[in-house]
Amino acid sequence: MAKSKYEYVKQFEKNDVLLPNTWLVVRIDGRGFHKFSDQHKFKKPNDQDALNLMNKCAVSVMNDIHDIVLAYGQSDEYSFVLKKDCALYGRRETKIVSTIVSLFTSNYVFYWKNYFPQKELLYPPSFDGRAVLYPADNNFRDYLSWRQVDCHINNLYNTCFWALVISGKTESEAENALRGTISSEKNELLFSQFKINYNNLPEMFRKGSVIIRKEVDVKTTCENGMEVTRKKKVALILHDDIIGDKFWKENPTLGVII
Amino acid sequence: MAKSKYEYVKQFEKNDVLLPNTWLVVRIDGRGFHKFSDQHKFKKPNDQDALNLMNKCAVSVMNDIHDIVLAYGQSDEYSFVLKKDCALYGRRETKIVSTIVSLFTSNYVFYWKNYFPQKELLYPPSFDGRAVLYPADNNFRDYLSWRQVDCHINNLYNTCFWALVISGKTESEAENALRGTISSEKNELLFSQFKINYNNLPEMFRKGSVIIRKEVDVKTTCENGMEVTRKKKVALILHDDIIGDKFWKENPTLGVII
Amino acid sequence: MAKSKYEYVKQFEKNDVLLPNTWLVVRIDGRGFHKFSDQHKFKKPNDQDALNLMNKCAVSVMNDIHDIVLAYGQSDEYSFVLKKDCALYGRRETKIVSTIVSLFTSNYVFYWKNYFPQKELLYPPSFDGRAVLYPADNNFRDYLSWRQVDCHINNLYNTCFWALVISGKTESEAENALRGTISSEKNELLFSQFKINYNNLPEMFRKGSVIIRKEVDVKTTCENGMEVTRKKKVALILHDDIIGDKFWKENPTLGVII
Amino acid sequence: MAKSKYEYVKQFEKNDVLLPNTWLVVRIDGRGFHKFSDQHKFKKPNDQDALNLMNKCAVSVMNDIHDIVLAYGQSDEYSFVLKKDCALYGRRETKIVSTIVSLFTSNYVFYWKNYFPQKELLYPPSFDGRAVLYPADNNFRDYLSWRQVDCHINNLYNTCFWALVISGKTESEAENALRGTISSEKNELLFSQFKINYNNLPEMFRKGSVIIRKEVDVKTTCENGMEVTRKKKVALILHDDIIGDKFWKENPTLGVII
Questions:
Q1: What is the topology classification, in CATH, of domain B16-207?
Q2: tRNAHis guanylyltransferase catalytic domain: which residues (chains A, B, C, D) (predicted)?
């Protein structure tokens, strides 16, 4: 195609290639999701359908962007991990982040009706994203541990808070009751006042969701009617602990050396 | 909330604050929209509904992000302009780009059914985004001129190409017929062979769409039944020439000095 | 030359090209010059020889790097201004900053003996440098105003401080005497106690030094003995006010529009 | 001190903090040293005094900047390595690079007379600098291997080239004679035509210089006349191979895991 005399303006574009051989984490966060979850009447402290929709979106992103080797999500956030040697889009930061955040958002609106068949989506939700580089395996693992500990701390607090509110306390009374309490006191409060054993709550609420690719057996029926089993890599949603060594030992293809 | 020992990983986040007092353009582009428009049977060379949906999304983005003073769109791309003194999100680049691309995408899926009531959206579409800084008014205007000239060049070519294809030529025959032709030859071809006067085609196809905020009179009926007229700033979609001085003289609030 | 298998490590080099069409200021600062000036017994509050050496170095840098259009210096710092359209080293930031700081340092050691023939240089002095971009003329002018106001504020304070110390006060008594005083009080103190009219002090001390290129007449004697006058651009050291408009009106080739 | 209304211009300064926990290499290069070495009549292909002056400067830089754990030099270049956890100047890139390049330059001019007592320094030499990050030990080692292989390739070529020129060939005849030759052919040429066994040439020429800190015994005489031996860390200049594992095994404090 012909070029115009204005084409020089491309020279103002910045080169934002990320350092090679470094773990890349792209985290997306719900924008204004406090209001969004109120208006869409999400269950408190956890809405299983909303979390399942988040997981569905993350799986879709992983199926589209093959350089993502792991995703970890909780609440209205999801972290996507690209391997150290990832060369996606020449490692251009804005291109990678904007593509992932757009894909996630698109899936969220697209699949909403599958997870909330009775609730209409009232307005278009949005997410923001960021990229962070981690040069060493231990920094990268600590990043994921940070998010999973955050999930635990928030969920324990929210479980107590909403139990108190549902039991008749005002929101500020609930806040005051919890101020300064440590984990063991919150566990005790749940058990003694509400007969809730925190450790029996669903793992998705307590640990978040981690998605990795695993080889599984897939059965298909051939034209001649014979059933055959083939190996296929699929994105699996787990609710495992990713802080300890066990997870990383069991998944050596992630490339983290223990 | 309690902090964990893993919190140090935040130190790896990069500061990506953009240079102050500089025009900021965020351009989003459809990802794989050649295939997307084929699969959704968009009309060639222009699908009015698809363009109107793009414009609707851009208006929604502007209604959400008040720092955007102008948007220009054509085909599957849209450029959003933030004023030189914009302080949105502390001018953090990735935050700004990811938010705009997410909002645009969300609106695209959300409003699809309004523009294509007969066509189901087959899969979630996505966009990527980038930010470019322009320090001087003339560089910034040249950026927009570059996009509008691009719109013209592509549209003239595509109008010829699809006229030839619809008339019975194969796609490669049409390509060969157009190879090396200049604008006047393409105009002549449209007129002599297809009785199409290119300049009579819809302005949206030839010039794209430019959205700015304008003060308009809004009529409202008060409680006592009286009708009052108030001034209100709304985002208006125009199909004007933005290359010449006229547009910029007529819209001095954009802050471009002629 | 042959290439080695290790050459891939060049891919880790970052692209640090600066935004085009933007004023570029490189400021160098003496490193540990408080100790350096003590050990070399610089006169207080101003050492004329030390300032002249700084100016000599700045002129040398400008004679080497032709993209520098103006330099401003005071105390142990110097700012070098490169025009908006400067394409030096492809506008690579580290290359530009490191070259300027190295040239300045080299000249400082090289020409020391010319300015301090009686004092031996005791150890190698050093400077650090930084680059700052200014997109608009007024931001760029405000940068220089900031440095010249800083020169004035520091010099007025130091003139009072050393006058008090030389008159017999201890350094902490002098500090206490000056704490909280405003400009007019410091001027009054100098005049009433020490008969110093601040405005009669050398302009280099009060305003710093600004270096620009000016066309001057240069006389040369030809082979045949005839004397001819030619125009030549040379770097001139001035001690002018660069805060007001006058300087910029008188030097339109600097490209700042008033 | 009082602040001025111009102080806002500091907001235009960019944050250039380097990624944590990553090897940082700062390489300085002589600027125009081809001409510089000609004008100062450096011996060809290697001038021992010039190389010793480079080494002296590098030791001085290391004695000043304690975060540097290793330096490697050859010809008119020197690379300084800062440990992964280095927090010097908050890891600000321009501050680190400009300080190192300034210190090196200053020492070069300052100590010139010690290495060239008979030759006056004709004009101030200068260097430029750059910073490169290496996230993994093997990338970092490959960087140093790249520079040492470069030293070997250049030195072998230059040794042949100057032997031919000294023997009476023109420079272009020497170039033609060497074009396309491989290492073994150059070794053979040196031995058969000039009786030079390349491997017997000084190691500094063939391998460059590597400087690390080592604990050595230092003898001091106390006031009472007794001689005592103390351990002290000093910067030692070696001419070792740094490509193989041996060097890294023998110097475990460098923190490279074999």
A1: Alpha-Beta Plaits (3.30.70)
A2: 6-135
